Amino acid sequence: MYKKQQCVAMLLAGGQGSRLYNLTEKTAKPAVPFGGKYRIIDFPLSNCVNSHIYTVGVLTQYQPLVLNEYIGNGAPWDLDRLQSGVMILPPYQGKEGADWYKGTANAIYQNLDFIRRYDPDYVLVLSGDHIYKMDYSRMLDAHIRKGADCTIAVLDVSIEEASRFGIMNTDADMKITEFEEKPAHPKSTNASMGIYIFSRELLEKYLIEDEADPDSSNDFGKNIIPKMLADGRNMYAYPFEGYWKDVGTISSLWEANMDLLGERPAFDLGDRSWRIYSRNTPLPPHRVGGSAKITNSLITEGCDVEGVVENSILFGGVTVERGAIVKDSVIMSGVVIKGGATVNYSIVDENCRLGRNSVIGRTKGAGENITVIGAGLDVPDDKNIPGGEMVNADWLENN
Amino acid sequence: MSATGIIFSNIHDSNLPEFTEKRTLASVPFGCRYRFIDFALSNMVNSNIYDISVITHYNYQSLMDHIGSGKDWDLARRSGGIKILPPYITAYANNSNSLYTSRLEALKSVSYVLDKLTADYIVMSDCDVICNIDFNKIIKAHAESGAEMTIAVKSVELDEKAAESSIIYSSDGDGFITDVLAYPKRFSGRADISLNISVINRKFLQQVVMDAVAHGYTSMTKDVILRNVDKKQFAVYKYDGYFARILSMADYFKYSMELISNAEARRALFSVRHRPILTKVRNSEPTYYSEGSEVRNSLIADGCEIEGTVENSILFRGVKVSRNATVRNCILMQDTYVGEGSYVNCVISDKNSRIKDSRLLSGTEEAPYYIRKHQTV
Asked: Phi then psi for A164, rounded to 5 degrees?
């Protein structure tokens, strides 16, 4: 017997994130570290809790170990609850056979039983690879006020960008009249953010029908949304204003990290009215030594800085020795940067050791690409790694 | 072998009267992001003691706020976990300043809880124990010695002033206590002083407390240990690790600054393998160093924003140092604000205090200038 919930959130966290290369070699995309002490999934989870949505199913599939461990019992987000809370929903073997999640819609379909337990009136569908702060409860209010069957959050993008998104064309009341997936000649700039609220009974009906259709690819964007629109359902766009970034590529992940810097950052983590929660590692305060020089950077617990850090983000427990220089880079937990090493325009994954006088990446500038060092690598002293390389153990062996 | 923990939260409040005006000694902030009691709690949890009672007396609101359900120490449990024991006996209420000032009196007042304990051993700790110590080692030594009670001591060089706040133990070759000097006058030299951490057999403790109630005993040292010193019931455990003993504001300042200057002290407290010091999680964002900030030789917690110059200082969570401000040799507690162009030196600012623009404030190492909680200067 479960308490009824007005709204249940289903967080799609199965993304492989192949465009993040070695960062997702052993980690699902939502578990990729971000912003000094967070992982990408902290943002939708914190948004749920801050929006008073306390029942969250997390649909995992690809490399779930790190993600499962990270979410654990949900305590860091206050989602360790008796009647609800966070629940990891991996694909499972049923009586009829085992299925991987075939598409986003199929993933929800396979977990309809989870949703039904709480008898919700609404289902919020989220994806686990976006950085943003959003009050879903306001979107739900709009959904209820308009008597919608489905509400889709949209972001006003530039006309040039519009071709990369699913575009919602609407009437003056934001009622969706047409949906175009990545249109070559967009008619409007309302880009879908992959955030949907459905009235629950109707969602069930469409998921069941979609599952029965052998030609469907069981995807919200490709199948469910176009079908509902074709059936003349009440569908509304919900305009979102504020920072939102898809961090599906190395460059967008780097940019989103850099958006945290500055005295008035594009994305403010210090907003006390909308805290971002994360699993805390017990580390002591960070230490800044006598020879350190830090400008326009974020530094967190457990770091020990004796070198130069500029326009960069250091995660927990990073050591920057005297004489080392870090610029325009994202350095993840536990990395040790030895004396004399230079890191430019790079993302260095967890627990690497960058040897003495090694040179990682090239100064950020026109035509230069981001260098990525995979987790746990030991870069030898004096090693020179050119710009734009995606370095893993094989690369180090062969170069 | 099973053990239960008891922590005394108010015993040494008078050592730091400024800080304890509105809080217990247990909840005095220390080391950028910790409170005194975090060390005792973490030491217990790291030694697998998951049943802990905290005896309080007064001013315990900030302590309750800090501990919450205990989940940040893994102590939110159905069985065991952490219990705060507020004053229960009201008979002494008219004389609040002498209300259980000794550990024995505190224990007498919670005898209703002690009676129900079933663990083999009780680990008792005051909350001014800034150290990272393995209680299991003390318990093991205690069990092997056959003593009823084992007191952790450390050999230190004492001057007359420090001796006046110390309990000094003499022991024989087997480690049994032969004499105790409690807060001696005109004593100086090397001595084994109490760390205010002890292990005691549960049944013995229950007996001692029952006896103390019946005979009106008030002091563990004078009435229990010294009366029975020839019975080989009381032993010492010699600890030689790092220990910050904070008896005054000057000590507080000295040991805080030592965290910056002494890498060995930092390592011995915070980087002991498998023995993290836990504290309340505040979900602060990482600290931001702006263009033009100058920070050297400092320890800094999360959630700070630094535009000015910081040297040789300790910044707690959420401190803001504005443009052109200079902070030297300071301890700035949670959410302190330092205004533009201000110069502060040897200042200890308590929580939520505010230093306006262009202020010039300076104390000395021996007598740091103290800014009260919520005070604006």
From this structure: -90, -5
